[in-house]
Amino acid sequence: MSQIFTVASKEFHDGLRNRWLVSITIIFALLSIGLTYFGAAAAGTIGITSLSTTIASLASLAVFLIPLIALLLSYDSFVGEQESGTLLLLLTYPLSKTQLLLGKFIGQGGIIALAIFLGFGSSALLLYVQLGDSAIISTFALFIGSAILLGLSFTAIAYLISLLVSEKSKAAGFALIVWFLFALAFDLCLLALLVGVKEGISQEGLSQL
Q1: Using CB atoms within 10 A of its CB, is residue 136 exposed (0-12), middle (13-18) or buried (19+)?
Q2: Distance between CA 147 and CA 154 in Å, rounded?
Q3: Backbone phi, then psi, for 149, in 5-degree steps?
Q4: Which stretches does DSSP call E strand in 27-105?
Q5: Distance of CA 173 to the CA centre of its chain
């Protein structure tokens, strides 16, 4: 276990030093706060709206940004180190491939979890200060947990891409294609299915999809 956490600690601290990741986390937090504070703009007013409306707005943001953050953070985890020669060096240490994989996953997953917590946590804090409803804490805890699982899922997909390709540039291209398919094309396909199927889709079926 110590080898796994050593690799995880290295990946986590490398992520903290990544200026791109710090920038995207700040942008993520600002967008979350903006959606929370200006949630009533559609009704012609400025200010905090209901908890359900805020969660729906933040969910739309999460669907687009979290997969992109996870893919761009992890797409070169293995192919990038292979090109630079550090992967061979790591494999000479008393470290199995499984330990290396788990260590990277825990470390980079921790970075994604931190970014999500700071982004959506700032919205939860703003909403709680304004409304003072204790239900905000439990609702946001479930929402943040789900968002983290979304990020970890796309981290795993990024690892698969990174292990299957031989060049970093190809990994970047495939990562963007995967993001496009899941973040944009999938929703469009669902919409086409709703419109095209004569009998329609039940609410339960739509939720499962």
Answers
A1: buried
A2: 11
A3: -60, -35
A4: none
A5: 18
* pLDDT tens per residue across span 48-90: 667 777 888 888 888 888 998 899 888 888 888 888 777 777 7
Q: Are 66 and 151 in contact (CB under 8 A)?
A: yes
CB 80 within 8 A of CB 168: yes
For the record, the structure tokens of 19 come out as 């200026």
Instruction: Please tell me the pTM assigned to this model.
Output: 0.84
pLDDT confidence of residue 176: 92
d(CA 203, CA 205) in angstroms, rounded, equals 5
Residue 107 CA to its chain's centroid (Å): 14
Q: Which of 160, 167, 175, 15 is nearest to 82 (CA)?
A: 167
Split at pLDDT 50, 70, 90, the class of 146 is very high
Determine the Cα–Cα distance for residues 47 and 193; give it in Å rounded to an integer.
36
Q: What are the two backbone dihedrals, phi and then psi, of residue 160, each rounded to the nearest 5 degrees?
A: -60, -45
Q: DSSP string of 43-104?
A: GT--S---HHHHHHHHHHHHHHHHHHHHHHHHTTTTHHHHHHTHHHHHHTSS--HHHHHHHH
